[in-house]
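Re: [ENG-882] Designed sequences occasionally contain unexpected residues at chain ends

Forwarding the minimal case from QA. Structure tokens:
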């Protein structure tokens, strides 16, 4: 989501040639040296010397970077549709779990101001050994909301670790598919096809490939999600405006990363998320003008592993 060009980019960010195939890309990503290159890059995100470097780094941090694991880490399965979900078509939305009638979408003409977490905060692991009834209810409410979403279209504002802002549009189609398009002048777009995530640079005609199962996206794109059962929730808090749920992931090689999900207390909708990487850098993505009735074109989520070009859609 949000040095020199050759020094700051991941060494796997090679131009995609016509004879390149998916196997080469995935093999390259799983190379253990990616972790070292990725961690070497992260301190430079706050002092980038060019707009392209800043945009590319911000996109990787916000959507992918903080949860990249080495190949030796225990694999996490990619989101899979439930047996019931695979039998449904776009013309059968009423067969899913009953929901309240969709409310008319009120378009915001001015992007919201993201809520930036206090950088001095310290949320230790297992802050609560158990959660009380109110906290469990908040987690259940968020789980039901996320599971009920099958498509989601909207706009976003991304704030990087250095305070820089990027905007754009996003499209989600469960399970496992998402596309983030950053507004000009950023040349970055990000696409997940259900198995892999690609961060593309239209200016340089390059793309970085990551396993979807090793990114925070898997939580938002999973067909069914129980936060307390399927994730390591370490904190649940709420106030008059937001319900906050923090998910923590530990890795022996790259350290601990966290994902803070914020939902509106009154409407229960997803408002923003903050990814904290193992170095402690925060990237916040606020979403708005959400539309759950619009069905994106499936071709928007196709990844061309053999030839770089403008993504379809």
């Amino acid at each position: 989501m949000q040095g020199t060009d050759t020094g700051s980019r991941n060494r796997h960010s090679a131009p995609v040639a016509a004879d390149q195939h998916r196997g080469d890309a995935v093999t390259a990503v799983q190379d253990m040296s990616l972790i070292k290159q990725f961690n070497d890059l992260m301190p430079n995100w706050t002092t980038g010397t060019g707009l392209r470097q800043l945009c590319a780094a911000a996109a990787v941090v916000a959507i992918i970077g903080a949860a990249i694991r080495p190949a030796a880490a225990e694999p996490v399965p990619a989101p899979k549709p439930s047996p019931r979900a695979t039998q449904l078509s776009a013309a059968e939305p009423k067969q899913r779990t009953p929901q309240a009638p969709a409310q008319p979408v009120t378009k915001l003409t001015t992007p919201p101001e993201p809520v930036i977490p206090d950088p001095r905060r310290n949320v230790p692991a297992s802050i609560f050994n158990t959660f009380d009834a109110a906290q469990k209810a908040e987690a259940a409410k968020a789980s039901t909301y996320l599971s009920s979403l099958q498509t989601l279209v909207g706009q976003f504002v991304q704030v990087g670790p250095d305070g820089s802002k990027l905007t754009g549009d996003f499209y989600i189609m469960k399970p496992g598919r998402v596309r983030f398009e950053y507004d000009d002048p950023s040349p970055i777009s990000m696409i997940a096809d259900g198995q892999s995530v690609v961060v593309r640079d239209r200016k340089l005609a390059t793309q970085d490939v990551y396993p979807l199962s090793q990114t925070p996206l898997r939580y938002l794109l999973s067909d069914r999600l129980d936060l307390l059962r399927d994730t390591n929730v370490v904190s649940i808090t709420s106030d008059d405006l937001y319900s906050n749920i923090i998910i923590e992931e530990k890795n022996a090689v790259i350290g601990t990363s966290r994902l803070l999900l914020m939902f509106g207390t009154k409407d229960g909708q997803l408002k923003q998320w903050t990814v904290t990487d193992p170095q402690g850098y925060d990237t916040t993505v606020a979403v708005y003008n959400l539309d759950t009735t619009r069905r994106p074109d499936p071709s928007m989520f196709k990844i061309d592993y053999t030839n770089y070009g403008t993504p379809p859609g």
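QA comment: On inspection the terminal residues look reasonable. Residues 133-148 form the longest helix (16 residues). Proposing we downgrade this to a documentation issue.
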